[in-house]
């Protein structure tokens, strides 16, 4: 397994590196740290090439810090510094060139609500990447996981939406992790239900359908826990979930995503805003 | 897992690396014009040039171009040999040693600080006028508040690395020249058609010939016009970025020269013919008009739409000119810090925005401080800041020109080209600048020069020369508290190879 980590010498970058470290140790992956240096355009003053070179040297120093942090955790990583206008675009290019399995980044640090905030780079990644993107919650570097124990797949309750379950099962089998399916049921998608009993019945039906689905997908899979979280709104349903250290969440893309690309739909975005664990977003099949 | 002891891995540098897309002819021309900020420069100085030399202002625009051209040759030669962000600082050190080079770099920083204050003032005034809030444009508190906001905003944008895109630059330049030329032509057409009003006078060819002027007036006008052409060296100094470094910069220089000189002369003619030299109404000898004669060319000439367009053009020109001032100067101070001439803090690069954030913010705060000081002390902040800016620019242009001659002294006789472009032309340009500087400084000592006086000294002298002289104690402080390696010539001297990567 190969990870591409997008890094800047900021707390966000440190979060991404911490997540990469945990993932690398869980899946025994090779890691490439990519740092994109700002492109300096000519502006009428001499010395631009020299200044660009100085920036690249700074970039190399910064990337070296990330490599050292990973080495301290026992993960071998190589660093690459490129010059470009768009961080996200360069990351995706690099990951495609090296056949990466995952792009790992930290999230923005200045959001108000929830620990996952989508800044400009993450936003670009989460709407164009052909490779799954792993997001570290804010402050992850301060309290990182050593490795992961369980994978949770947020399975859609409506058919036709993209199902991250196959990818989650691949991950789980790669490192013998527990796997759990999560159905989020809220009153929003039960417009026809007349009263509470109907809501509850619908929830149980949804959970059972998912279990059957999983069993069909992997005949000799380990015990798959199936969990239904329900609430009046998606946010209140999410609040009832208990996450532990070593949990990893996998969500899919919106159904109108371009084929084989990620497009963070509104539901997935709300899930991101409502959980504290690292999240992997999977492209549409 | 064991921690492996590995030697530090050198990261691979991939992607485009060092070469940004090469400039074509149009890109080169636009960079040259954008660096000059024509609408803003004209708005700031035209009134004062007319005040100094009366109707001969067009001749001054032509005359003042000559020393700028000569100094630009020095820029071309030096930047080809040593393409370093430190420009005047680096070249001064290599030619004359650390002390002169330091002061040259200081001259650069001072001119950036002064121009920021001036930009803030002009942008504030013209924006208020554009919005129709003429009362606020006269109100000191409102002006200073908006001006300070502009300084902080431009500094913050530069520190974050937000720059105007190339396409936007093209649009801004087209608008600036478009508006200036169209309105000037309308004015002249009206003058010749006789519909300009009683104050209009017939344009004379003699306005192009600087006869009947005394040396002091010429020197004062040239110092002002230095500001109008300031930045033009960008055409020649970025030769290394151009697709065809042998031919394109030269052609671009020619094109920009023609465009600039012709536009300035055209505008001067249009204003002088239309407004006349009466001292009432829009006449140019009316003291109330000196600050913004350009707007004379607005409403009376072509109606309120043109007036609004002109005001907005000047305001936007002023603000966008900070782009070619703040970040490049911050890169210059970064270069000085790398060579240990100033504290290492100035070499700090922000890990996310990748700009010399510390240097940028220091410059912004200094400009803010200077702007407030100027407002408190000066009778007419605009006039005084322009004149002192001209002094600072003449100062470091002179150093650059003489550095060229002295640095290349051993190669001067290798070819005729070297003799002229590295020796004679820069020497003449430097002399021109030095003479203009000395004569103006001498005149500025008189308290009745300009608008402000500090007791028995002229205000502009105190501001202009004072700011430059302030560099000396600062330099001594850097020497006292720094590593001293720079001042001993260990980090940078005539033989230091500036690290230029092989890209071409």
SSE order and pairing:
The complex is a heterodimer of chains A (285) and B (504).
Chain A: E1 2-6, H1 11-27, E2 30-38, H2 48-72, E3 77-84, H3 87-97, E4 102-106, H4 120-128, E5 133-136, E6 150-155, H5 165-175, E7 178-186, H6 196-217, E8 224-231, H7 234-239, E9 247-251, H8 266-274, E10 279-281
Parallel strand pairs in A: 1-2, 1-4, 2-3, 4-5, 6-7, 6-9, 7-8, 9-10
Antiparallel strand pairs in A: 5-10
Helix pairs in contact in A: 3-4
Chain B: E1 12-15, H1 25-36, H2 38-53, H3 57-81, H4 88-96, H5 98-130, H6 134-138, H7 140-159, H8 166-193, H9 215-229, H10 234-237, H11 248-275, H12 299-321, H13 326-338, H14 357-377, H15 381-407, H16 416-445, E2 453-454, E3 457-458, H17 459-469, H18 471-481
Antiparallel strand pairs in B: 2-3
Keywords (chain B): Cell membrane, Membrane, Transmembrane, Transmembrane helix
Membrane topology (chain B): Multi-pass membrane protein
Function (chain B): Probable amino-acid or metabolite transport protein.
């Amino acid at each position: 397994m190969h990870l591409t980590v997008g890094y800047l010498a900021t707390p966000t970058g440190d979060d991404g590196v911490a997540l990469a470290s945990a993932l690398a140790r869980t899946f025994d992956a090779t890691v490439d740290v990519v740092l994109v240096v700002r492109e300096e355009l000519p502006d009428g003053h001499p010395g631009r090439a020299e200044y660009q070179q100085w920036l690249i040297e700074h970039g190399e120093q910064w990337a070296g810090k990330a490599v050292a942090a990973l080495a301290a955790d026992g993960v071998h990583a190589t660093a690459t510094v490129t010059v470009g206008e768009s961080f996200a675009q360069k990351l995706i290019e690099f990951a495609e060139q090296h056949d990466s399995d995952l792009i790992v980044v930290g999230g923005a640090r200045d959001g108000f609500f929830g620990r996952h905030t989508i800044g400009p780079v993450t936003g670009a990644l989460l709407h164009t990447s052909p490779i799954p993107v792993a997001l570290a919650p804010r402050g992850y570097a301060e309290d990182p996981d050593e490795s992961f124990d369980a994978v949770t797949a947020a399975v859609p309750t409506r058919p036709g939406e993209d199902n991250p379950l196959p990818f989650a099962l691949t991950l789980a089998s790669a490192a013998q992790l527990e796997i759990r399916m999560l159905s989020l049921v809220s009153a929003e998608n039960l417009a026809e239900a007349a009263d509470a009993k109907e809501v509850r019945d619908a929830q149980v039906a949804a959970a059972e359908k998912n279990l059957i689905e999983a069993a069909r997908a992997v005949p000799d899979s380990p015990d798959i826990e199936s969990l239904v979280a329900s609430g009046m709104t998606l946010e209140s349903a999410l609040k009832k979930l208990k996450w532990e250290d070593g949990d990893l969440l996998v969500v899919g893309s919106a159904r109108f995503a371009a084929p084989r690309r990620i497009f963070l739909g509104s539901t997935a975005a709300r899930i991101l805003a409502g959980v504290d664990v690292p999240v992997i977003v999977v492209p549409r099949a | 897992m064991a921690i492996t002891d590995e030697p530090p891995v050198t990261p691979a540098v991939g992607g485009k690396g060092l070469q940004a897309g090469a400039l074509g002819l149009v890109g080169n021309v636009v960079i040259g014009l954008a660096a000059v900020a024509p609408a803003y420069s004209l708005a700031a100085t035209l009134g004062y040039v007319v005040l100094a030399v009366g109707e001969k202002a067009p001749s001054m625009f032509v005359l003042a171009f000559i020393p700028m051209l000569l100094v630009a040759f020095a820029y071309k030669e030096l930047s080809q040999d040593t393409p370093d962000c430190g420009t005047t600082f680096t070249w001064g050190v290599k030619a004359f040693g650390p002390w002169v080079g330091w002061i040259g770099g200081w001259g650069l920083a001072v001119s950036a600080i002064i121009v920021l204050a001036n930009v803030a003032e002009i942008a504030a005034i013209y924006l208020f006028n554009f919005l129709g809030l003429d009362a606020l444009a006269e109100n000191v508190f409102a002006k200073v508040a908006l001006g300070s906001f502009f300084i902080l905003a431009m500094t913050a944008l530069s520190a974050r690395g937000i720059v105007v895109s190339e396409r936007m630059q093209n649009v801004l330049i087209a608008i600036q020249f478009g508006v200036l030329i169209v309105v000037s032509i309308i004015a002249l057409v009206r003058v010749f058609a006789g519909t300009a009003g009683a104050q209009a006078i017939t344009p004379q060819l003699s306005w192009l010939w600087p006869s009947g002027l005394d040396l002091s007036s010429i020197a004062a006008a040239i110092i002002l016009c230095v500001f109008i052409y300031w930045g033009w060296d960008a055409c020649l100094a970025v030769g290394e970025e151009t697709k065809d470094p042998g031919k394109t910069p030269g052609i671009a220089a020619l094109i920009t020269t023609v465009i600039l000189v012709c536009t300035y002369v055209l505008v001067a003619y249009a204003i002088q013919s239309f407004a006349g030299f009466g001292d009432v109404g829009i006449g140019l000898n009316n003291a109330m008009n000196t600050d913004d004669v350009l707007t004379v060319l607005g409403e009376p000439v072509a109606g309120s739409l043109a007036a609004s367009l002109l005001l907005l053009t000047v305001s936007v020109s002023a603000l966008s000119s900070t782009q070619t001032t703040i970040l490049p100067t911050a890169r210059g101070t970064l270069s000085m810090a790398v060579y240990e001439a100033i504290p290492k803090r100035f070499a700090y690069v922000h890990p996310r925005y990748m700009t010399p954030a510390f240097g940028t913010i220091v410059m912004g705060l200094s400009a803010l401080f200077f702007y407030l000081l100027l407002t408190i002390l000066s009778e007419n902040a605009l006039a005084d800041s322009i004149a002192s800016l001209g002094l600072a620019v003449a100062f470091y242009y002179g150093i650059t020109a003489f550095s060229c001659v002295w640095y290349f002294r051993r190669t001067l006789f290798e070819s005729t080209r070297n003799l002229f472009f590295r020796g004679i032309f820069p020497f003449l340009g430097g002399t021109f600048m030095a003479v203009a500087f000395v004569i103006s400084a001498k005149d500025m000592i008189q308290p009745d020069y300009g608008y402000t006086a500090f007791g028995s000294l002229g205000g502009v002298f105190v501001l202009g020369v004072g700011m430059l002289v302030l560099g000396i104690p600062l330099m001594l402080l850097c020497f006292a508290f720094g590593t001293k390696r720079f001042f001993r010539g260990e980090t940078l001297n005539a033989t230091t190879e500036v690290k230029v990567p092989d890209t071409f």
